[in-house]
Amino acid sequence: MCCKKIFITLLLFTICLFGATKRYDIKSGIVEYTITGQGETMGVTSSIKGSAKLIFKEYGLVEVEKETLTEHVMGQTQTMQEFSKYEDGLVYSVDYEEKLIYKQDVSKLDNSQTAALMGESGLKSIGAQKVGSENILGFSCDIWQLDDMKLYLYKGIPLKIETDMMGYSQTQVATKVDFNLSLSEKEFALPAYPVKTMDSVKSEIQREMENMSPEEKKMMEQMMQNMKMFNNQ
Q: Phi/psi class of residue 59: alpha, beta or left (left: φ > 0; alpha: ψ in -120 to 50)?
């Protein structure tokens, strides 16, 4: 589950433009979601329920996403909290169990890469196709298909995300939307944890891959390949 979540988060950050321009066509807002999912991976059945909240200002140049998830795996129940933030070309991911914050610099995209990630051309450049539209909470969303993921975007803002990856399906759909709000700095504050760079995490992942099964290696290789899009390599 952890690998799937990391992959989806990185993919969404890849699709969005990280640069000195607006990511969304709306200045600020709060979107609340419900999350449900279930499936079987490598013979292990799991299900998940939870909620999420997306908070953004300055047309998405500052943004946080908070999640509370309850996962059921083989009779065991686990509750998880997740928190990610984007600001000034940096992505922060909070690990509440380890009491750490992981930081990734995504500001190294050159001008040609930045241009390629703008709007519809950006989605098309990574292989996404517009496959229709759907009304969610009164907002008309364009539906974009990218491999096993569907993104329902309103002015660039995801109001629904459907994924079907390696036997596991998950849906995140908006239940409440408020736009053009006046938001306090407290909404965007990170916890007072030590910060660890994603470059060091990538090195740890590569070492761990030596002991993984073929299925786990495939999942991790997908994630690592996506992470390369954030670096000036």
A: left
